[in-house]
């Protein structure tokens, strides 16, 4: 009987050790999974930021080209509409210079 009780206690101790080892292994696996998940999320975030920056840079370039085209078009339109003879042009330039330089 005593042998049976000692065997039961021994098996229970072995079972407890096995359970502790299993819990430790589960914790390690869970920790590794969390780390890998966090790494994947960070990599995806970095890739998204890089892609967003590329898109924004491309949009800025497109906007700059559009602005230059609109300025060129406006300049052409202004030149078509405004025709000053040389005497009036010089008078206007002198007036602007006097205003800017605050001369009477």
What is the tally of helical segments? 2
Radius of gyration: 41 Å
> Shape from CA axes?
rod-shaped
Write down the secondary-structure element order. HH
End-to-end Cα distance, whole Å, is 125 Å
Beta-strand residue percentage: under 5%
Q: In terms of structural class, how would the helical and strand content be classed?
A: mainly alpha
SS elements, strand count = 0
Q: Could you describe the largest sheet, including whether it forms a barrel?
A: none
Average pLDDT metric: 90
Helix content: over 70%
Low-confidence stretches: none
Overview of the structural elements:
This protein is mainly alpha-helical and 104 residues long. The protein has helices at residues 2-81, 86-101. The termini are far apart. The relative contact order is 0.03.
Q: Which keywords apply here?
A:
single chain; 104 residues; mainly alpha; 2 helices; 92% helix; 0% strand
Q: Can you describe this structure in just a few lines?
A:
The protein is mostly helical and 104 residues long. It contains two helices and no strands. The termini are far apart.
């Amino acid at each position: 009987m005593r042998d049976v009780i000692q065997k039961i206690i021994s098996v229970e101790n072995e079972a407890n050790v096995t359970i502790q080892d299993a819990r430790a292994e589960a914790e390690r696996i869970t920790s590794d999974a969390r780390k890998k998940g966090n790494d994947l999320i960070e990599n995806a975030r970095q890739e998204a930021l890089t892609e967003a920056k590329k898109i924004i840079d491309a949009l800025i370039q497109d906007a700059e080209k559009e602005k230059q085209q609109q300025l060129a078009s406006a300049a052409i339109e202004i030149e078509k509409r405004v025709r000053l003879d040389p005497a009036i042009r010089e008078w206007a330039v002198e007036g602007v210079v006097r205003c800017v330089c605050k001369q009477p």
